[in-house]
Amino acid sequence: MNVSNRSRNVLRRYVATLLVSRWIVLFVTFVIIAALASGLQFLKFSNDYRVFFDKWNPQLQALEEIHNVYTDDDPVLFVITPKKGNVFSKDTLASVEWLTREAWKIPYIRRVDSLQNFQYSRAENDDLVVSDLYRNADSLSRTQIEKIRDIALTDPQLVGRIINPCGTVTGVFATFHLPGLDRQKEVPEIMRHAEKLRNQLVKSNPNLDVRLAGAVVISNEFTAASSRDMAILAPLIVVLIAATLRLLLGSALTAIAALSVIALTLAGTMGMAGWLGFVISPASVIAPNVLLTVAVADSVHVLVDFLNDLSTLNVTHKSDPVKRARYIAIILSIEQTIKPIFITTLTTAIGFLSLNFSDSPPFRDLGNIVAMGVALAFFLTVFFLPALLAVLPIAHHQRKDRKSHSQLFDKFARVVIAKRKPLTIVLAVVVAGLSAMIPLNELNDDVVKYFSEKSEFRQDWTYTTSNLTGLYTLEYSIKAKEPGGINDPEYLQVIERFADWFASQPETLHIDSILDIHKRLNKNMHGDDPDWYRLPDNKEIAAQYLLLYEMSLPPGLELNDRINIDKSASRLVVTVKDLPSNEMLDLERRADEWLTHNAPDYMKARAGSTPLMFAHIGQTNIQGMIEGTALEFIVIALILMVALRSFRLGLLSLIPNMIPAAMAFGFWALIQGKINLGLSVVANMTLGIVVDDTVHFLSNYVHAQRNLGKKAESAVRYTFRHVGKAMAVSTLVLSAGFGTLIFSSYELNAQMGLLTTITILFALLGDLLLLPSLLLFKLPARKNSREHTP
Question: Which residues form a coiled coil (predicted)?
Answer without folding.
Answer: none
